[in-house]
Design brief:
It is a single chain. With 309 residues, the chain is of the alpha/beta class. Helix content is 35%, strand content 29%. The strands form three sheets. A six-stranded mixed beta sheet has the order 6-7-8-3-9-10, sandwiched between helices. The two termini are 36 Å apart. The structure holds adenosine-5'-triphosphate (ATP). The site of adenosine-5'-triphosphate has 12 residues, from strand 2 and helix 1.
Length: 309
């Protein structure tokens, strides 16, 4: 089920939390929603899931507007809210049964779905405990299980891996990736490697506005600008190598990374690559090129550039 967000706006008193944003999410896509604290991620997710009303703009899910109550779209959506509200006095199994029945799962299937979710979310050892007795990570797993219990076509997950241990993080990321092959998934996170590991596309929001929208590679390319290469060239005098690299007609600048290690950083001119020229230079001078690494812009740097102001 595709989601289309059109000119969505939400204000709280004088503050505009979400400011005229538009984007699409397609079936079979995992969209990573990034942004600093207070950027408007949770507010957007709450509007998509119908948890809060829309003030301006519209959201279409499978072509139908969420503003029309007769469309009854909530059954297609699984939602893990940011603070993962749970009934602490209920045992895990009872809670999942309750959530399943609220979602309209029939009694024949409910036990099967609960067993599946207990397995998928690693809750087997804790399934008879009251939720209030569970550790933070296990509560998060219960929140994920309730979001998925009715096998929804759309999953909206607000910081799904918060509080999970490293093993479970890897399992949940894999699960999200697998689910994302068939479903529509939107997840918010502050963990940037998580976005790279899980998401097909990244949306960065800052102060209620979208400031970036694309695959990690596209965002890198946009931020990267000129080619930057890290080189180690051995069997030659460092100063002579530096001078010769500077003379290449594709090179804009050359700096030492570590002079005594013959390590250099070469920046090429716009739209140019220097790899072949560097290789040929080394052959001609009988120097040995032992390292040539393209330097990629880190997602952290892209995020900081777009959101620090
Ligand atoms: N119920 C509310 N009443 C007043 N202001 C609110 C309310 N909910 C959110 N806000 C404000 O709207 C802005 C966006 O909040 P939101 O929770 O959407 O941000 P977020 O991107 O999810 O942040 P975080 O990463 O910290 O969870 C914030 O400045 C917040 O204080």
């Amino acid at each position: 089920m595709d989601i289309q967000i059109e000119k969505l706006t939400k204000t709280y008193g004088p503050q505009t939390a979400v400011n005229d944003i538009s984007f699409d999410v397609k079936t079979g896509e995992v969209l990573g929603f990034l942004g600093p604290n207070g950027a408007g991620k949770s507010t957007t997710m709450k509007m998509i899931t119908g948890y809060i009303g829309i003030e301006k703009g519209d959201i279409h899910i499978g072509g139908k507007s969420v503003t029309n109550p007769s469309n009854d779209l909530k059954k297609h959506i699984g939602y893990l809210p940011e603070n993962n509200p749970l009934y602490l006095d209920m045992p895990v199994m009872d809670y999942l049964e309750f959530c399943g029945s609220l979602q309209g799962i029939d009694t024949l299937n409910i036990d099967k779905r609960i067993r599946e979710m207990i397995g998928v979310c690693g809750l087997n050892r804790e399934k008879h405990k009251k939720i209030g007795e569970l550790s933070k990570g296990y509560r998060q797993r219960v929140g994920l299980a309730q979001a998925m219990i009715h096998d929804p076509e759309i999953l909206v997950l607000d910081e799904p891996t918060t509080g999970l241990d490293p093993n479970q993080i890897i399992e949940i990321r894999k699960l999200i990736r697998d689910l994302g092959k068939e479903k529509t998934v939107i997840l918010s996170t502050h963990i940037l490697p998580e976005v790279e590991a899980t998401c097909d596309r990244i949306l960065i929001i800052n102060k209620g506005k979208i400031v970036a929208n694309g695959t990690p590679e596209t965002l890198r390319k946009q931020a990267q600008g000129n080619e930057v290469l890290k080189l180690r060239i051995e069997d030659g005098d460092a100063d002579l190598i530096l001078k010769s690299l500077k003379e290449l007609n594709t090179v804009q600048s050359v700096e030492y990374v570590q002079q005594n290690q013959n390590l250099f950083e070469v920046q090429s001119l716009a739209e140019q690559t220097s790899k072949r020229h560097i290789f040929n230079l080394c052959v001609q001078k009988k120097w040995v090129l032992t390292e040539l690494t393209p330097m990629e812009t880190k997602l952290e740097d892209i995020f900081r550039n777009l959101t620090v102001n």
